[in-house]
Design goal:
Elements lengths: L6 E4 L3 H10 L8 H8 L4 E8 L14 E9 L6 E6 L3 E2 L4 H15 L4 E5 L7 H8 L3 E3 L7 E2 L1 E3 L4 H6 L3 H12 L3 E4 L3 H18 L6 H11 L5 E6 L2 E10 L3 E9 L1 H6 L1 H15 L4 E3 L7 H6 L7 E2 L3 E5 L4 H25 L4 H22 L2
Parallel strand pairs: 4-6, 13-14
Antiparallel strand pairs: 1-2, 2-3, 3-4, 3-5, 6-16, 7-16, 8-15, 9-14, 10-11, 11-12, 12-13
Helix pairs in contact: 2-8, 6-10, 12-13
Length: 375
């Protein structure tokens, strides 16, 4: 690691932290509220401001050239903990490697974590990658957030965004817009509970794991206005939704779901468009649909544009002499998780009764895995 002269200061004031994230164009997963969600579910969170040694800290957030919200997950002795920066650091990409070097030195000195894992919000091939390699970071395939994604440019006009869709997708969106469906943000806790019901039904139908309802209630509570849920309503009842985390510049899609009635109305098309336009109206300049895999959900996402985006992925910096132990153990743990997920999916076609019996166990397994990985 190079000699990086910097001052690292923990920040304990929410307003000051969020002002820094916004001033430096940060991702919504670096906002205070997202850290509070993780802190409520097994992580310890620290917000670190990075300044030049000569900077006057009393001058406020504008003196910072970088920042990182670091989440720590306890690991068995002697590994101590894993430090993780989700879609960070925040700041000028040209100095991002300097920020991460300073953060890594702080984590090593104060926490003794086995490794620092970072997933920057950078395009693949960014100049920052070379700097990370020079600082000792290693690219790893053990990703938490999927680097292959689709990011819409919300500075385009609505006509341009519509033109980029597949023809049948555009037709479905326009049909929804001409229908009697209402597209708006979820406004009450009672509506939130209905959204959670739709999400549980969607997960059972599609065969993916989810957290407990309390996890999603905590997102609603801790992120507040930075986590809008845009929904399609039919006669006052939600039938499809898109849940977003947003900062000043970036909208990041967290979750989505559709009820059987919503499927029949194809409301998942209109609600996606409503999410795009709502975030555009809020001033966001980019909309990240959050991950593309080789599955039906990803195929649906890809209907809304003719391109894909590849982010830099996951980088890991060893901080402890016990790192080789951690590096050997993690792939084995992830393989076990993959086998468990595959078994759950194979059980799904066995019939409605079998599915309903498997879903609670699937939720429990994957929620535990995601809580360990940070998702």
């Amino acid at each position: 690691m190079s000699q990086n002269r910097a001052t690292v200061t923990p920040i304990e004031d929410r307003n000051a932290w969020d002002a820094t994230v916004e001033a430096l164009g940060g991702h919504p997963l670096q906002l205070w509220g997202w850290g509070e969600v993780k802190a409520a579910h097994g992580w310890e969170v620290e917000r670190l401001l990075v300044t030049d040694p000569e900077a006057d800290l009393g001058a406020g957030p504008s003196t910072a050239y970088g920042a990182a919200e670091v989440a720590y997950r306890a690991l068995p002795w002697p590994l101590r903990s894993l430090a993780y920066v989700s879609r960070g650091p925040v700041g000028d990409p040209a100095r991002a490697a300097d920020v991460l070097e300073a953060v890594a030195a702080h984590v090593k000195a104060t926490r003794g974590s086995v490794a620092l894992v970072v997933e920057p919000d950078w395009e693949a091939g960014s100049p920052g990658e070379q700097r990370l390699t020079g600082a000792g970071f290693r690219r790893t395939d053990s990703t938490i957030l999927i680097p292959r994604t689709l990011i819409l440019d919300l500075t385009l006009s609505e006509d341009e965004l519509m033109a980029a869709m597949h023809r049948t997708t555009r037709a479905n969106v326009r049909k929804n817009l001409r229908s009697e469906l209402e597209f708006r943000r979820v406004a009450t806790e009672a509506e939130l509970e209905k959204i959670l019901t739709i999400y549980r039904e969607t997960a059972a139908r599609a065969g993916f794991g989810i957290h407990s309802d309390q996890y999603y209630r905590d997102i609603w509570r801790f992120l507040g206005d930075n986590s809008p849920i845009v929904a399609a309503f039919d006669d006052g009842e939600p039938i499809a939704f898109v849940w977003i985390a947003r900062s000043g510049s970036t909208a990041f899609e967290l979750y989505g779901g559709v009820s059987p009635a919503g499927q029949k109305a194809r409301a998942n098309y209109g609600v996606k468009w409503a999410a795009f336009t709502e975030m555009k109206a809020d001033g966001c300049t980019r909309y990240d649909l959050n991950g593309l895999l080789n599955d039906g959900i990803s195929d649906f996402k890809k209907q809304f544009a003719q391109h894909e985006d590849q982010l830099t992925g996951t980088w890991e910096l060893p901080l402890s002499p016990f790192y080789p132990v951690y590096a050997r153990a993690m792939p084995l743990a992830r393989k076990a998780v993959t086998r468990g997920r595959r078994a759950i999916k194979e059980a799904l076609p066995a019939g409605r009764r079998a599915v309903e019996g498997a879903v609670p166990a699937a939720r429990s397994l994957v929620a535990k895995v995601r809580s360990r990985s940070g998702r």
